[in-house]
Amino acid sequence: MKLLFRQRFFSWFDSYDIYDEWGVSLFTVKGQLSWGHRLEIYDTQDRYLGQVKEEVLTVLPRFALYLGERCIGQIKREFTLFRPSYTLDCNGWRVEGDWLGWNYQVLDAAGREIARVYKEPLHWTDTYVIEVAEQGNVLLALMIVLAIDAANCSNG
């Protein structure tokens, strides 16, 4: 399944619309006023699905991932000199990416690809394509992309 993740051009807080490859809206992400990033995910009927919440007072960005009200894991940025690196503590998955942090893969413990993410350049707002191998992993893959985008934003 292919998703298109596009930040809204005029938005006071981080807000995103998530579409499938045919332009059908699947999710809305609404940024909430809080210390650090707090991104709530809703389906097309405006039902709350989960959130990505930045943990404040940390040296490097760290985000908790919530499915409904239950914390299912976290992702944190690691200190590196040349390229962004993230540790993912969820489902035994890991993140591997390029030196800009725009293109990366989410892999399971056996090295199988869960999702592939790449940023489309030359847009007015951040635009990513997320290719997810299995439909059941779409929401968690979206949460990981939201967290990495917010961490890159926090880092300037």
TrEMBL record:
Listed InterPro entries: LOR, LOR_sf, Tubby-like_C
Similarity-based family? Belongs to the LOR family.
Q: What is this protein called?
A: Uncharacterized protein YxjI
Its source organism is Bittarella massiliensis (ex Durand et al. 2017)
